[in-house]
Automatic annotation (TrEMBL):
<dbReference type="GO" id="GO:0032259">
    <property type="term" value="P:methylation"/>
</dbReference>
<keyword id="KW-0489">Methyltransferase</keyword>
<dbReference type="Pfam" id="PF13489">
    <property type="entry name" value="Methyltransf_23"/>
</dbReference>
<protein>
    <submittedName>
        <fullName>S-adenosyl-L-methionine-dependent methyltransferase</fullName>
    </submittedName>
</protein>
<keyword id="KW-0808">Transferase</keyword>
<dbReference type="GO" id="GO:0008168">
    <property type="term" value="F:methyltransferase activity"/>
</dbReference>
<dbReference type="InterPro" id="IPR051052">
    <property type="entry name" value="Diverse_substrate_MTase"/>
</dbReference>
<dbReference type="InterPro" id="IPR029063">
    <property type="entry name" value="SAM-dependent_MTases_sf"/>
</dbReference>
Length: 275
């Protein structure tokens, strides 16, 4: 496994169990769930395509939830697609994903996630060489692109898993320039952890235990982050340069994501189709 992926695996293994309990993560995840659910049409999972007598989950849409974590995207879109597969580099995240209610209830054939590293520059992990990890209609990468060493490689490798000429990739991530939050990661990475007065005020208002968790999270997460945020222009270029030359779209989600309860930032959703 490439060393940056290994760093991500270690960090996310260590925090998989508390992903669902940390309040700021819950709030962020709820914001994404609402944003995705409210934009199903825009994403291409159009409720008007569903015949009245046909339950939406019977429609043939195969979804890849890449860097799925415990599976928020799979939970939200699962009821509207025919099959879901998750891939993540963290074994512990995969355990959480496969334990989830919807995966249990509908069974492995319908929803299942697999551990592996698709992003090794030397070649994708052989564990991911399974026939049902190809030919997807839609892939979603939520809150993970900023962790990848090489986003261009990620987009290309995901593109190889989609249906040629029609597959769509949706990316949800932090909007560049929407906060000074990326600078905190850069400052921490360089060992100059200086908070702005506004950040300090928010931090000091938090209970000591939460401040301690933020400190730990900042120190743990910083080395896993390669591109803290993305602009619209960067997303367009990322898609175009890597095979997704059709139907580029970009929107900003309403509201702010209060990352770690202190660093206010905005999220975007962007998608494009394979050329
Ligand atoms: C912040 S979590 C997001 C999880 C989920 N997509 C969500 O929206 O809640 C980032 C995820 O990216 C995964 N990840 C990081 N690097 C990866 C890689 N090289 N391949 C696959 N998954 C990776 C982590 O293990 C983690 O589960």
């Amino acid at each position: 496994m490439a060393s940056h992926s290994e760093r991500n695996r270690e960090y996310f293994d260590s925090m998989a169990a508390r992903y669902h309990t940390e309040p700021w993560i819950q709030e962020g995840v709820a914001m994404i769930a609402e944003g995705v659910d409210g934009h199903r049409d825009w994403i291409g999972i159009d409720p008007s395509n569903v015949k009245n007598d046909q339950p939406s989950h019977k429609r043939s849409i195969r979804l890849l939830d890449f860097a799925c974590g415990p599976g928020i995207i799979s939970q939200v879109l699962g009821p509207h697609v025919s099959q879901v597969r998750g891939i993540d580099v963290s074994e512990k995240m995969i355990e959480e994903y496969n334990k989830s209610a919807i995966a249990q209830e509908k069974g492995k054939e319908f929803m299942h996630a697999v551990q592996g590293d698709l992003l090794d520059p030397a070649g994708a992990d052989k564990k991911l060489d399974l026939p049902d990890l190809y030919e997807f209609d839609l892939a979603v990468v939520s809150l993970a692109m900023h962790h990848f060493e090489d986003p261009d490689l990620a987009v290309r490798r995901i593109g190889e898993r989609l249906k040629k000429g029609s597959g769509v990739l949706l990316v949800i991530d932090f909007l560049d320039g929407s906060s000074n939050e990326e600078s905190i990661f850069q400052r921490v990475a360089k060992g100059h952890k200086v908070l702005t007065p506004a950040e300090n005020e928010k931090l000091n208002a938090l209970p000591a235990a939460q401040r301690q968790r933020i400190e730990t999270a900042l120190n743990g997460a910083t080395p896993t982050i390669k591109n803290p945020a993305f602009s619209k222009a960067r997303m367009e270029e990322l898609f175009k340069n890597n095979g997704f030359g059709k139907n580029f779209e970009f929107l900003t989600l309403e509201g702010n994501f209060e990352r770690m309860g202190v660093f206010s930032t905005k999220l975007f959703m962007s998608k494009a189709q394979l050329s």
